Input
Amino acid sequence: MSAPTGRITAVDTYDIRFPTSRELDGSDAMNPDPDYSAAYVVLRTEGGGPEGHGFTFTIGRGNDVQVAAVDALRDHVVGRSVAGLCADPGSLYRDLIGDSQLRWLGPEKGVMHMAIGAVVNAVWDLAARCEGKPLWRLLADADPAWLVSQIDFRYLTDALTPEEALALLSKGKQGAAGRTAELLRRGYPAYTTSPGWLGYSDEKLTRLARQAVAEGFTQIKLKVGADLDDDIRRCRAARAAVGPGIRMAVDANQRWDVGEAVAWTKALAEFDPYWIEEPTSPDDVLGHAAVRRGVHPVKVATGEHVQNRVVFKQLLQAGAVDVLQLDAARVAGVNENLAILLLAAKFGVPVCPHAGGVGLCELVQHLSMFDYVALTGTTEDRVIEYVDHLHQHFLDPVVITDGHYRAPASPGFSSAMHRASIDAYTYPHGTFWAADAASGEPGTDTEVHA
Amino acid sequence: MSAPTGRITAVDTYDIRFPTSRELDGSDAMNPDPDYSAAYVVLRTEGGGPEGHGFTFTIGRGNDVQVAAVDALRDHVVGRSVAGLCADPGSLYRDLIGDSQLRWLGPEKGVMHMAIGAVVNAVWDLAARCEGKPLWRLLADADPAWLVSQIDFRYLTDALTPEEALALLSKGKQGAAGRTAELLRRGYPAYTTSPGWLGYSDEKLTRLARQAVAEGFTQIKLKVGADLDDDIRRCRAARAAVGPGIRMAVDANQRWDVGEAVAWTKALAEFDPYWIEEPTSPDDVLGHAAVRRGVHPVKVATGEHVQNRVVFKQLLQAGAVDVLQLDAARVAGVNENLAILLLAAKFGVPVCPHAGGVGLCELVQHLSMFDYVALTGTTEDRVIEYVDHLHQHFLDPVVITDGHYRAPASPGFSSAMHRASIDAYTYPHGTFWAADAASGEPGTDTEVHA
Output
């Protein structure tokens, strides 16, 4: 544990891209060829003290725009007291979302908002390192009133007041020690998307689905939405592979209009899909409510592209979702996700976070574990998404045992990448990309031995 | 008229900023010190043929991020056939919003979406120049089926189908010749925000309000939301200055939560506000619906920060607005605004566009004039915002006579700035900013004699 001293001396940014499109990892109905990428941020401190690491996940082109957006925040961060930031990350969060000129580019959505998320998450990583705790534990140990102080309630008070948040967190503390022990013993339930990418053959899908069950997962997910006949064939194959006792979610990645979402989901009903994910635009609160009415008893899930707490609030107010899929890096970091977890708790909707991408599993596990230990107190009907690629680039990668995320023990937010990975995959001049360009042949090696 | 030939050879971008914060022009409860700026785009064509000009409006910091976002679109544009673009601007619009990697940064919102709007509007400027018509006339003369082909109906069909759009546009054509003559004779009604900036003294407010009425305006607007006592005093002074027959809108620029919006608006009711604008988050469809129920008979208006057609659709579906304030440069350009105009027409909600900023008046007048001539056929309860600064930087500035926008006659979208203005205000190396930095004293001269 390092006592926080000194000031932030630099905000270093890196445009990191992995050539995942060459293997069709991550392919779905809207994203046929993603190159999983990260606009990566390192907060440096005086005298080589602890660093803070954070990032925005993107799928390739535009990662440079994300880096430019983080660069535009630098003046808000450099020179800040490390002790002040660690004591109150919310002070920076509020300054960033409140910058009256930058706010015009949102407000609180898209490129600028995700850039704020990267910086804010880096601050929480720094705070947890300084505290000598994994982030989930820092949050679970925190005073409820302090957690409430980390939230911006603007635009929320018609659904959640600071007083209600305090009551939920105070109640959540009861029995936390027992749940911490249980979490350390058992981990947090996961489900896996790895079998179901749209670009995979039926053979690969079936093999990976069986393997997932053998590894202890009780839920898998399939991408759908490009072609109905293909979806029926793939769902049939997957259901046959896993048997009736395994939950099988399907994910349309925003491919449909409202009417189409209802019709297509009903056409898959015979395979007993557990939820339909992203049936339509993530902006369409009323549309999701209509889809939910239309596809019952199939559940409706969304969230990975939901831009901020205001839209999550409405999804809950409108009864538009059965499952809330927050993302660690889409919104403005831990502070905004605390608000979203509290909204979900208030409305009694389970949170099953989006993960995958680059490092999203590493980040989001901390939020769900905090939620279990010190907010909702349950993992019932709650699972964190798991995708099995790119973890090797992280210093503290997620560990999955018997279908559960193990609780991280290292201080921080599990957000730091290996220096060798950064050096290799920085675009376009890192060693991988430079060699790739020089060879004239696309490579697919995403393994880095760091 | 130049026959469109050849290809797009370059997409040139400029970070243009005006030091408006030094005079408190444009100040409001959320934006105390804007430096009105434009991320400006010029499409160059082969052989020095006609150019296309477009831009995103911002209020200062972050304009560089907007420029980076336009730069990220360049590969989609360079090399395209000019004739192909002019015949079907929608082909580029769909490619840009559909780029599967860039889409991750939205989808269809914030920095990337506004950048797409700048490029798409530049294409329409080019198309109108090639056609030898002002844009409003190109749109009003167009075949309804072609206009329908320019719209992306994804996520809209639960509220508006292509068939309904075609019917609205076909009906809108009836009597268009007479309305064109009337538009050329009388212009399109305007209202003015120039008296009501929050940073202005009561004396300046009163003087400018009287002047607005003397100039023929029948509606003014005041910024509110920072301090209730101040708002009461300013509304009283403005109402006394203009008398009871003039509409007086108030604008909170997203300052409030739902409950506060209702209470504050009611506290101003004795001054007979015509509408309350942006009472809360532009993302909060359900919140606006609640505010509208609470403040009746004061109307609710929003739109300048509404991110895309999906949110506008919901504002209409939920009965959340009395007045729809589209912006020419917030969404993905003319194509998306055609969808928004059609949605408003379908739901019978008047469109009173947001303008001001840099060049927003110049752009948006074309959309309202098309709406009048060839879609809704009326200007009843419809007014375009007018703000009286920065027009001198445009080659074809708006002309206001007796409280009306005159119909533009020059070919194009009125979007081109003077070369001298671009050279002076390009940040940070243009002649104005270089001299400003060298002098050590902030200047306020925003006049450029081009």
